Amino acid sequence: MSQIKIISLDAEGTLVTPDFSYNVWQEAIPALYAQRFEVELPQAKEIVTAEYDKIGDQRLEWYDIHYWFRCFQLDSPEPLIQSCRGKLRYYPEVIEVLSSLATQYELIVSSGTPEELLQPLLEGISSYFVRVFSSTSHYRQLKSPDFYLQVCRAMNVGPDELVHVGDNWQFDFLNSRKVGIRSFHLDRSGNNHESLSDLRQLKPYLSV
Ligand SMILES: [Mg+2]
What we know:
Layout lengths: L5 E4 L9 H19 L3 H15 L9 H7 L6 H6 L10 H8 L4 E6 L3 H8 L8 E4 H5 L5 H11 L6 E5 L2 H9 L4 E4 L17 H4 L2
Parallel strand pairs: 1-2, 1-4, 2-3, 4-5
The structure holds magnesium ion.
């Protein structure tokens, strides 16, 4: 087996808690919608959520905040993104794990989140990463097997020299495995014994 050179990490649910995104999608956008169309907040939440569900997470539009702002006839998303920054949280072990891994490996982020949301998400930890890849912004696709190949190409390594970790079974685990990347699924509930339950559990596997 080739030596591991690069550790790739997913962002949301892996490094960053869902609080920021929840606030953007489930609170702030419905609040703007309620204001714009003069409806009560609970009703706005229902309408907005129903529209999200119609698209679903297998389509690119789901991730595209500009699409949703157009769809709901709202102005620019930038002030809303700024207003949600106070909700940004990293999982407790993240800084310790990144500090430790960064002494031996190059660290990258491979995320499906578009750049305009990914940048604020990573602002407190961006110094640990040599590169940040957004499949939706940079490659116009979800985290498909092809996306992972493109990441390897961009980093100038073979799939067997990169390890990827993320919390989505399909987008992080299965799709990266399909191209020969040694990937790990993260399930923070701890209910799945085949998966890592936090990022501290990764390191012992890297030297094996
Ligand atoms: Mg994730």
